[in-house]
Predict the structure of Protein-methionine-sulfoxide reductase heme-binding subunit MsrQ.
Amino acid sequence: MAARLSAGRVRTLLYAVGLVPAAATFAMGVANRLGADPVNVFERTLGLWAIRFLILSLCVTPLRELAGINLLRYRRALGLLAFWYALFHVTAYVGLDQGFDGAVLLADITRRPFVILGMVAFLIVSVLAATSNAWSIRRLGRRWGAVHRMVYLAGLCAAVHFILSFKVLRVEPLLYAVVMAVLLLYRLLPGAVRRRRLAQR
């Protein structure tokens, strides 16, 4: 019981700390400290943190299998933080960037590849967030694992979305894409190879 309470406290702390960047960025926006293009900076910062938390959630399994560090009990919290930042990012785009203009939004979602990829990633993490509970696990049964493996598709879509959101290639988005690709390649390793590696721990 003590261990469960301890894990619960850690998760609560993780949520609190994890939302600090959003609160800090919002406060900077209110104080007019986000530079010449505050909406763009606000929107990009939220999206960047969504990718960061998504990567952290994907690192949980490799850390356990390769380094013996077991953070499985915190993976859901990391995934939910990725969802919340993705939601903040999309809300900023819809409300602050496009002013809730339905025609412009429809044109973006149907014609601009980087927006399409971003929306695909957001829809996937939304489904994953909605099914990250005991009821969904029981309801979906074996299908739950298949549904949640879509997180890798979300990660790749988010990484390419990040790259294409700039008019020129930049190092930072490419680095995030490489990390996502490495995590996906690790996931694609045969199960026997990964189990053997885990057994050697």
About this structure: The chain has one domain: 2-200.
